[in-house]
Amino acid sequence: MVVAYIDGDRVLFASDTQSKTKNFKYRVSGAGSGGAVRHIGHGITIGFSGIIQTAEVLFFNEEWFDSLGEDKLTKRYLMQEIIPRLYARLSDAGQLNKEAAKNGNSAMLTTFLIAQGDRLFYIDTDFSVSKVERYAVIGKLTEFALLRADMIPASDNKEAAMAEVLREMERRTILVSAPYCFTDTAERKFKMLEA
User: Fold this and answer.
1) CA 82 to chain centre
2) CB 3.0–4.6 Å: which of 54, 101, 187, 190 could bond 107 by disulfide?
3) pLDDT digits (tens, 9 = 90+) for 40-78
4) Alpha-carbon distance 71 to 42, whole Å?
5) Least confident residue range of 19-28, 67-76, 106-115
6) Whole-model pTM over 0.70
7) d(CA 145, CA 24)
8) DSSP 61-122
9) At what angle do helices 142-149 and 158-172 cross, to 10 degrees?
10) C-beta separation of 109 from 1 below 8 A
């Protein structure tokens, strides 16, 4: 699960450290070591929930963002430059549910939060892109997590509030577990927090 919150000129990210592949789940060993949130070039931070093989297509193709140059990330850029490449790569690799896609339903098994500076975007399983205005949550039990995330803006300690969202989801599902990993788009450093 990934929680993201726009805090002034940066986006804060918090995630649990449990990941999964198509066949098994595992815990990442430390902050920034292949967890659900990663920093890539051009000041881009990507959080994901779903199949890691799908997420790695974005992680390992950061050159897709090269034409961004010094410009800020926009929904238009994601729709015109990133989504077509992501769709083509996943299609070529056989990682799309093509029957579902034909009917306009979810085609990939992963959702993304992509940020740069104070800009945050959500990419859904149908490849739609939304600009996030305040905060977002991706992962299991998202509806419950969003209810808890309502407390983040009022909190004096945003990290603690985000950790509480993750703790609450950990109480509800075995698919979310501590320790939790925190980072932001300004410092781009990772730190861990035990439950």
Assistant:
1) 15
2) 101
3) 999 999 999 988 888 899 999 999 999 998 899 999 999
4) 10
5) 19-28
6) yes
7) 24
8) -GGGGGGGTTSPP-HHHIIIIIHHHHHHHHHHTT-S-HHHHHTTS--SSEEEEEEETTEEEE
9) 150
10) no
Task: Give the residue carrying structure tokens 């990133």.
Answer: 82
Q: Which of 97, 116, 86 is nearest to 9 (CA)?
A: 116
Q: How far apart are CA 18 and CA 27, in angstroms?
A: 4
Give the integer Cα–Cα distance in Å for 114 and 130. Answer: 10
Q: What share of the chain is helix, strand, coil (3-state, %, to 5)?
A: 30, 30, 40
Distance from C-alpha of 170 to C-alpha of 147, rounded to nearest angstrom: 15
In degrees and rounded to multiples of 5, residue 57 shows phi and psi of: -60, -40
Residue entry with tokens 């703790």: 167
